[in-house]
Amino acid sequence: MKVLAIGECMAELAPSNAAGAFNLGFAGDTFNTAWYLAQTAPDLQVSYLTAVGDDTISNDMRAFIVASGISDTHIRTIPGETVGLYLIHLDNGERSFSYWRSQSAAKQLALDVEALDRAIADADLIYYSGISLAILDAASREALLDALRRGRELGKTVAFDTNLRPRLWASADEMKDTITRAAAQSDIILPSFDDEADWFGDADINATLERYAQSGASQIIVKNGEKSVLFSQGDARDEVTVEPAADVVDTTAAGDSFNAGVLSGLLLEGDLAAGIKRGCQLAGFVVRHRGALIPVDGADLS
Ligand code: ADP
Questions:
Q1: Is residue 280 part of a domain?
Q2: What is the reported pTM?
């Protein structure tokens, strides 16, 4: 089974133990999911579609992606460009972020439509997010949505994490309109209730699920932090209880790692509930550690 994740991977500068020093890493929402898939599901072939530059940091990122067991076949190199960067500030244990991503090559990931079509045709499941759309200009957004529509016509499965990030959009209305249209052409939707309530005004988790159910997606999985995950398969509704972690240190990539559990469970076992349980175990492990990409050797994913 082949998974293609589409989006932006960024360079990350995270504070190290030495005062004033930072460690360089690479992360980004859809990339994190690809990374957890590659870590936890060796039977899947995972590929990442993005665009990078031809400078040293771009080459380092590509090398990291390949070393993580993720194919770089669908990563475009754009001469003269570079990758986005974010820096994590730690202030009394509270994390905040500064971003430098307006010049990121990833904004050009959908310019080569033939390459996009080839990459999608080469996959069984395509995974992307609201952030993958938010970073693109209007024409590229439509090009990506069109390519995904053609992919579905070929029988590909499209999985979409709505990942609402209003600061990346020109307006809340543009975000909501585009996310709703993208959801309407997805098979699997993976929203997080608190963000959806903030921006779509959903009164409760059922409202989030039913709003997306109207779009016709066959499987909708609504995350809700340490509370139960609500999900639908066609007309059926059910939930999976989350075991709250007592010792949460950092919820970065909770949703991204959860999504990897869900997708690998679906693809390898054909069982959505089993995938959600796997997602809960994986995310429950990740929130107990600092950082986005946590080696999972010690996680119980049985
Ligand atoms: P996002 O990171 O996308 O906002 P959530 O915060 O809803 O997503 O969390 C995603 C998943 O991570 C949850 O469904 C749950 O499985 C797991 N998770 C999040 N917070 C906790 C917690 N405190 N204890 C255990 N698991 C958690």
A1: yes
A2: 0.97
